């Protein structure tokens, strides 16, 4: 039995051609052709989300269809779900702290100059640290300029004056 391709089915229900959909979403027609093929999983995630949203297609249904994945069964056990969330949070904090350590080394400040209890462990801060570290390593900005963009909040263990 051949798998149903939801992208094609939903596009045809809306009576849209690939050309019309491609022009409406401003994406290449080849991207739509790949989405409507058996190998749609190789498509750029941006295109998957954009086309699915336009066609009213559920991403969860796509995942269930492609991977035979039952989300309700997977997260039925609350303890397992909490463990997954805790591992994700721990990995995120570890990644941000490792980037912060690298930033401190690159900008010639000490880690204890930052009050990590007040540091937001957001993906925005992670992105900012990664970008600044890259710029510092390529000598595109000075340590002083980097500290202006990501200033330390003096930690309680810092010996520096405020």
UniProtKB/TrEMBL annotation:
Q: Tell me which PROSITE patterns the record gives.
A: HTH_CROC1
| Gene3D superfamilies assigned | lambda repressor-like DNA-binding domains
Q: Which CDD domains match?
A: HTH_XRE (cd00093)
Location of the HTH cro/C1-type domain: 7-62
Give the molecular function GO annotations. DNA binding
The record's section on Pfam families has: HTH_3
| InterPro entries named in the record | Cro/C1-type_HTH, Lambda_DNA-bd_dom_sf
Top-rank lineage group of the source organism: Bacteria
Record protein name field: XRE family transcriptional regulator
């Amino acid at each position: 039995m051949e798998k149903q391709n939801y992208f094609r089915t939903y596009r045809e229900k809306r009576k849209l051609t690939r050309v019309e959909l491609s022009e409406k979403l401003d994406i290449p027609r080849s991207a739509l052709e790949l989405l409507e093929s058996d190998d749609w999983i190789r498509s750029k995630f941006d295109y998957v989300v954009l086309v699915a949203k336009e066609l009213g297609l559920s991403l969860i249904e796509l995942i269930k269809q492609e991977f035979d994945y039952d989300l309700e069964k997977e997260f039925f056990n609350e303890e397992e779900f909490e463990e997954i969330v805790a591992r994700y949070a721990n990995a995120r904090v570890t990644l941000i702290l490792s980037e912060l350590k690298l930033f401190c080394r690159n900008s010639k400040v000490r880690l204890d100059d930052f009050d990590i209890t007040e540091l937001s462990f957001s993906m925005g801060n992670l992105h900012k640290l990664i970008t600044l570290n890259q710029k510092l390593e390529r000598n595109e900005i000075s340590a002083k300029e980097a500290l202006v963009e990501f200033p330390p909040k003096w930690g309680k263990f810092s010996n520096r004056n405020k």
